[in-house]
């Protein structure tokens, strides 16, 4: 597949991205200066093929499998926001105790600061311009050890990968086009499939007043737990793709059959853009995944013949 060649011109007001004069990434004092960076950008189709082959062969994919140019290209095909997982000096087995780490501990703060400062050093040395730390670092999680930075430079990718306190680097918003490589196989596409449901006849039991109970509820003891509590007085919070306004059992029929005195509240907080053009996509489900998960959790034990949720 043909590899397209791009010519990245990094000018006064756009070395890393276009912003207002107050928010420019680099303080260019001479706007006649140009820094030309000629790099082979790997097409998105090629990156998708690598990811899908890894999933087919190994049932998993890790961004560490890509070389620097491939990873940088994936970053450019997305929104150029790089997620960087870090660790403090001397730490190991991070995944086994990820929730007990205090990222505000001085050793963890130092590791996070070193990563940002090293990125600044690479860019300032390369472009001979000062870089604002606050503009470089877009987000730093206050519980988990990762941060996000706006990165357009391949050399930064290479440098970060060589640092001992960097656990991983990944393009934040890269999405694989599974449809192009379907080849008769089904992929979940992040749970947002629009394909019809498969026939589930024989995989459920009809219970009163006229609801379907999944075959695995008894195996997990869910119907036995209903003898003690059905979730009265409990609030379930679900973070997902939203809930369809057309699903009556999660709307007007949420209180039906044996399920009474319940309420549903919807909030849309996902931002579809950045900075001044960001928009909230609202609480309405656009792909079905959130609606399905909400149904598994809270679908009413009604009399319309539909499946009942766990709670």
TrEMBL record:
Keywords: Hydrolase, Protease, Serine protease. GO terms for biological process: proteolysis. Residues 231-311 form the Peptidase S8/S53 domain. PROSITE patterns: SUBTILASE, SUBTILASE_ASP. GO terms for molecular function: serine-type endopeptidase activity. It comes from the Bacteria. Pfam families: Peptidase_S8 (PF00082). Belongs to the peptidase S8 family. This is S8 family serine peptidase. The lineage of its organism: Bacteria, Pseudomonadati, Bacteroidota, Cytophagia, Cytophagales.
């Amino acid at each position: 597949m043909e590899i397209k060649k791009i010519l990245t011109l990094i000018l006064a007001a756009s070395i890393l991205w276009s912003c207002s004069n107050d928010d420019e990434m680099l303080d260019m004092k001479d706007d006649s200066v140009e820094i030309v960076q000629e790099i082979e950008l790997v097409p998105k189709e090629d990156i998708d093929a690598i990811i899908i082959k890894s999933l087919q062969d190994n049932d998993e994919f890790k961004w560490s499998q890509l070389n620097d140019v491939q990873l940088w290209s994936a970053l450019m095909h997305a929104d150029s926001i790089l997620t960087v997982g870090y660790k403090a000096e001397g730490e190991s087995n991070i995944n086994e105790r990820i929730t007990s780490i205090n990222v505000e501990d001085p050793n963890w703060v130092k590791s996070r600061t070193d990563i940002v400062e090293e990125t600044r050093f690479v860019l300032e040395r390369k472009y001979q311009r000062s870089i604002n730390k606050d503009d470089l670092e877009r987000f730093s999680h206050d519980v988990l050890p990762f941060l996000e930075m706006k990165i357009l430079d391949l050399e930064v990718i290479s440098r970060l990968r060589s640092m001992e306190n960097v656990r991983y680097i990944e393009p934040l918003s890269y999405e694989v086009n599974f449809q192009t490589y379907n080849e008769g196989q089904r992929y979940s596409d992040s749970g947002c499939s629009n394909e019809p449901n498969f026939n589930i006849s024989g995989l459920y039991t009809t219970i009163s007043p006229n609801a379907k109970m999944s075959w695995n509820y008894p195996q997990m003891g869910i119907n036995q737990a209903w003898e003690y509590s059905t979730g009265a007085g409990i609030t379930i919070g679900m973070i997902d793709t939203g809930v369809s306004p057309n699903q009556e059992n999660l709307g007007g029929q949420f209180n039906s059959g044996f399920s009474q005195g319940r309420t549903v509240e919807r909030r849309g907080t996902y931002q579809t853009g950045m900075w001044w053009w960001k928009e909230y996509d609202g609480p309405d489900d656009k792909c079905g995944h959130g609606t399905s998960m909400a149904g598994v959790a809270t679908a009413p034990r009604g009399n319309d013949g539909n499946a009942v949720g766990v709670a």
